[in-house]
Design goal:
- By secondary structure, the protein is mainly beta.
- Among the domains are: 48 residues, Complement Module, domain 1 (Ribbon); 77 residues, Immunoglobulins (Immunoglobulin-like); 49 residues, Complement Module, domain 1 (Ribbon), CATH 2.10.70.10; 119 residues, Glutaredoxin.
- The protein has six helices and 29 strands.
- A hairpin with a 6-residue loop joins strand 25 and strand 26.
- The radius of gyration is 65 Å and the shape is rod-shaped.
- The protein starts with 54 loop residues before the first strand and ends in a 6-residue tail after the last helix.
Length: 452
């Protein structure tokens, strides 16, 4: 159309839509615009074909299922398992031949699993979905809880984190059992050993506890059980034991000599013990003075004997006679007017019956009978001289006119006088109570049945 005016001419141009347009301005200039596509619902490829890596696109077109990118087609985006959709889940093919949005699938991951103390894990596919991580513990530890965890579709791990607990007890080995022989003259033996060392898979330093006697000390005769125990930090326990045996080598029991006794060191018959021979008063030792128990369990030397002392009755003075008994024997001096004196006769019978008991009590009987010139003195069958008889009567004031008895101790002191016959029991009782020392009483008790 053409319009005319008087002073201004205006040109208006009209173009069909969709053929490309120019915009007119007052200065007669124009610019090129984008082509606007002609809408065509029959074009099967109005928008570009969709593809979703690691996912699936499901489209619904007005033209049917076969048309997936025609104008107006709507498509749903879904990612494969293990992937998460980022962007718009539903998009549509628009008139401008573009889709209404974009989307892509990103691989889903679980967080990195923390390490467990004293353990480790290995995973099949790292930390992505469906990856399984298996847990293992160091030697000496055991899994408590789940043995594996799986990365789930939501990005979280299945189960809970396990732990490694110390279940392996420590290891300890005791030294071998041992036998020690007691030292000579002793009933003990010093025993030493190296304390055992303990090892553990978890703990490097362990305290070993001793139950029993310390090494390097003296052990008594017999068996001694030595135990060691150890605990790790998880209170797992280990223990071991061994035996220390101390042997005291012994000889057979050494018998005391008849009319004598032994004094032994240590325990009397153990290895190294020495036994000395002692004879009762009025007896003399014949043989070795001592014997020693040897390692081979035999006594050294041969046994000694106690034989009656030799009394010299042919001495000339009473003091010479008494000196032979000093600190060795007691004396019972029996005096009577004559051998037919009734008191003497009775006492003689009782003395003969008590001879063994008097000998056990270290008593020697001296008889003084009659008056000069037929006076006699004797010790058993040995006759005394008249000078000795007179000396004894003078020293101890013994009368010839009546029966009497004088009891002397081992020092030659007058301890008791009797003017009537004394039975053996009465005489024994007095001697046991007032003249015997403690050691003599003990030995007498051991030989009390000897005279029977």
């Amino acid at each position: 159309m053409l319009l005319l005016g008087c002073s201004l001419t205006v040109l208006i141009l009209l173009f069909p839509v969709g053929s490309g347009t120019t915009v007119y301005d007052s200065y007669n200039e124009f610019t090129q615009e984008d082509d606007t596509p002609q809408l065509d619902y029959n074009n099967p490829y109005w928008c570009h074909s969709l593809g979703l890596t690691n996912g699936e696109v499901t489209c619904h077109s007005p033209r049917g299922r076969a048309y997936k990118s025609t104008l107006g087609t709507r498509c749903e985006m879904n990612c494969d398992r293990g992937y998460r959709l980022l962007g718009r889940r539903s998009i549509q093919c628009l008139a401008n031949r573009r889709w209404s949005g974009t989307a892509y699938c990103r691989k889903m991951r679980c967080h990195v699993l923390p390490l467990i103390p004293h353990g480790r894990y290995s995973c099949t596919q790292g930390f992505v979905v469906d990856s399984r991580c298996d847990f293992n513990c160091d030697p000496g530890y055991r899994i408590e809880g789940e043995h594996s965890r799986t990365c789930q579709h939501g990005g979280s791990w299945s189960g809970v984190q396990p732990a490694c607990s110390d279940t392996d007890p420590p290891k300890i080995k005791c030294p071998p059992s041992r036998l020690k022989v007691a030292e000579p003259g002793k009933l003990t033996a010093r025993v030493t050993w190296d304390p055992p060392a303990a090892t553990d898979t978890a703990d490097k330093s362990l305290d070993v506890i001793l139950v029993g006697q310390e090494p390097g000390t003296d052990f008594k005769e017999g068996l001694h059980i030595i135990r060691y125990k150890v605990y790790d930090q998880a209170r797992n326990r280990a223990a071991c034991k061994f035996i220390v045996r101390v042997e005291v080598r012994r000889c057979s029991e050494l018998p005391a000599p008849l009319h004598g006794y032994l004094s032994c060191s240590s325990d009397e018959n153990n290895y190294g013990a020495a036994c000395e021979y002692h004879c009762d008063g009025g007896y003399e030792r014949r043989g070795v003075s001592s014997r020693v128990c040897q390692f081979n369990r035999n006594w050294s030397e041969g046994p000694a004997e106690c034989t009656p002392m030799e009394i010299k009755s042919d001495v000339k003075t009473a003091s010479a006679l008494l000196d032979q008994f000093y600190e060795k024997r007691r004396l019972l001096i029996v005096s009577a007017p004559n051998i037919s004196d009734p008191d003497y006769q009775l006492q003689n019978i009782m003395t003969q019956k008590s001879d063994c008991g008097l000998d056990l009590r270290h008593v020697t009987v001296i008889e003084l009978l009659g008056s000069p010139p037929r006076e006699t003195g004797r010790i058993k069958e040995s006759q005394l001289s008249s000078e000795v008889i007179e000396g004894l009567r003078q020293v101890f004031r013994i009368s010839r006119s009546y029966f009497s008895m004088v009891l002397l101790d081992k020092l030659g002191l007058d301890r008791e006088r009797f003017i009537t016959p004394m039975g053996s029991d009465e005489l024994y009782s007095y001697i046991d109570s007032f003249l015997l020392d403690e050691e003599e009483r003990e030995r007498l008790e051991l030989h009390r049945d000897f005279c029977d």
